[in-house]
Amino acid sequence: MALKIRLARGGSKKRPFYRVVVADSRAPRDGRYIEKIGTYDPRQPKDSENRVNIDGEKAAEWVAKGAKPTDRVARFLSQIEVDGKPVVAWEHGNNPNKGEPGTKAKERIQEKADKEAARKEAEEEAKKAAEEAKNAPAEEEAPVEAEAEAAEEEKAE
């Protein structure tokens, strides 16, 4: 039988109150439990003594028997000391890489950046071509005049 030390919700709507219980992992959250070892009232201020009340000795006994605390309960038990040691060594449970985009999203971002760079290069080339076109109209007029003169000579002959 897999044992869990977890929270069982009580209280009315919008007024939560939790019991810290030892229960079979297959039992429903608010259902049957083996033993109640404490309470948790999230409506209390964080520095209040009544916010978390857990019997540390009972919790240590159940952990020794193999009960696994949930993340929230493990955080509470890490603050309770029995015989100079915390009941449970809790480590930060959040995954810092969870918010990073996946490989496909990273590829899409890279493709978008490549397209943007190509677009900027094309704009710069277009600007250079436009500047060259402004500076070169006198050179282009000369061949047009030469063609007109050649056409006139052909008519004269």
TrEMBL record:
Q: Which UniProt keywords apply?
A: Ribonucleoprotein, Ribosomal protein
Region: Disordered; residue ranges are: 89-157
UniProt cross-references to Pfam families, sorted A to Z: Ribosomal_S16 (PF00886)
Keyword Repressor included in the entry's annotation: no
Basic and acidic residues bias (residue ranges): 101-134
Q: Where is the composition biased (Acidic residues)?
A: 138-157
- Record flagged with keyword Metal-binding: no
Determine the domain of life of the protein's source: Bacteria
Matches recorded under InterPro entries: Ribosomal_bS16 (IPR000307), Ribosomal_bS16_dom_sf (IPR023803)
Which HAMAP family does this one have?
Ribosomal_bS16
Supply the NCBIfam families for this chain: S16
**So what family is this one in?**
Belongs to the bacterial ribosomal protein bS16 family.
Full protein name: Small ribosomal subunit protein bS16
Lineage of the species this protein comes from = Bacteria, Pseudomonadati, Pseudomonadota, Alphaproteobacteria, Hyphomonadales
Q: Gene of origin?
A: rpsP
